[in-house]
Amino acid sequence: PPPAPPPTSPPPPTSTTPQPAMDAHLALTNAKAAQAAGFTGAGIRIGVVDSGVMRNHPTLAGRVVANFSYVDPRSNNLAVDDVVGHGTTVAQLAAGVAAGQWPGGIAPGAQIVSARIINDERPKDDGSGQGNEVTGGLGMTGIHNDLIRAGVRIMNNSWGGLYWTRPTVTAQIAAEYRPFIAANDGLVVFATGNESRANPSDMAALPSQPGVGGSLPAADLERGWLAVAALETANPSKLADYSNACGVAKNYCLVAPGTAAFVGPNATASNLSYYYGSGTSYAAPLVSGAAALVWQAFPYFDNNLVRQTLLGTATDLGDPGPDAVFGYGLLNVGKAVQGPAKFDWGE
């Protein structure tokens, strides 16, 4: 089994994080315009590689079409779909339906495939402050094959905590993602991480990681890869203090609001509870949901064209064009479902 990574490290709580409007994640990303035009993500499957997804959650009931678990049953409670609650929150931001006061996620017509890789207990850091070093492949090939067989086109990854220093590792990890991107024409979406760094986590910026002799053995994955950093929801022209910036991934990176309201992971239809939280973990699924809307609108697009559409329609922030802070800028779902906006990709 793969090393069980943690979800993106939760950012330190601050007393200054204001409670977001219930619909801030929809309003700031212009998703309401896309939904008003009839786009829901119907027919598209999003893989949530996370801590599991509560299949009976009021925002997701009947929509989790496959439920895979890769965690050790001796140290994890498999009687509960999602002990941590993280994956359920990520899934509803991508694809939840409205419940009570909560207006739903970006793609309420999409289906969810859950791949549980995050343990119920957070792993200990190896002392580096970067999580844990990996010295070879992650053992994800079988997981990705399961997602491919389940019909997943978009793979959301709101986790981190792995890094590597050996240049041989990049090619090994890239080989595990290549079938999903190249053969399956899938799109990988990765949260940049919450360590306030200038660059994303090694995993989120995999296409840019060096290999042996200064090579870039994962560069071909960029056609199916998006990194997502987080904006301050209350000040959406500012990168969140905790967010890793787009950095080396700027050419395949964009930003979305990081503080969002959601329905509690253990809520039931008759007992709804509302929470809000912050992190790049919550920005990434907004992009995954947006990708589902674009693919519904343009089912003949390949992964690269969906990716280019999301990047090229983003609202530019910071320096003109893609920059090392915001990448291409703020996700604009209403514009994305109208198709590509930029045709000068240097390819």
Mean pLDDT: 95
* CATH fold type: Rossmann fold
Distance between the termini: 37 Å
Helical content stands at 10-25%
List low-pLDDT spans. Answer: none
Strand content: 15-25%
How many structural units, i.e. domains?
Answer: 1
Listing every helix as H and every strand as E from the N terminus to the C terminus, the arrangement reads: HHEEHEEHEEHEEEEEEHHH
Can you tell me the CATH superfamily? Peptidase S8/S53 domain
Please name the CATH architecture: 3-Layer(aba) Sandwich
Assigned CATH class: Alpha Beta
Radius of gyration: 18 Å
Query: Using DSSP, what is the number of strands?
Result: 12
Q: Describe the biggest sheet?
A: 8 strands, mixed
The gross shape turns out to be globular
Pfam family, one: Peptidase_S8
GO molecular function, one term: serine-type endopeptidase activity
Protein name: S8 family serine peptidase
Organism: Stenotrophomonas nitritireducens
Helix and strand arrangement:
Elements: H1 24-27, H2 31-36, E1 45-50, E2 64-69, H3 86-95, E3 111-116, E4 132-133, H4 141-149, E5 154-157, E6 162-163, H5 168-183, E7 187-191, E8 225-232, E9 235-239, E10 253-257, E11 259-263, E12 274-278, H6 280-297, H7 303-312, H8 333-336
Parallel strand pairs: 1-3, 1-5, 2-3, 4-6, 5-7, 7-8, 8-10
Antiparallel strand pairs: 8-9, 11-12
Helix pairs in contact: 3-6, 4-5, 6-7
Describe the structure.
- Residues 1-15 have a biased composition (Pro residues).
- This protein is an alpha/beta fold.
- It has helices at residues 24-27, 31-36, 86-95, 141-149, 168-183, 280-297, 303-312, 333-336; strands at 45-50, 64-69, 111-116, 132-133, 154-157, 162-163, 187-191, 225-232, 235-239, 253-257, 259-263, 274-278.
- The chain has a single domain (24-336), classed as Rossmann fold, CATH 3.40.50.
- Strands 1, 2, 3, 5, 7, 8, 9 and 10 form an 8-stranded mixed β-sheet that branches. A two-stranded parallel ribbon has the order 4-6. A two-stranded antiparallel sheet has the order 11-12.
- The longest helix is centred in the C-terminal third of the chain and has 18 residues, at 280-297.
- The model has no long low-confidence stretch (mean pLDDT 95).
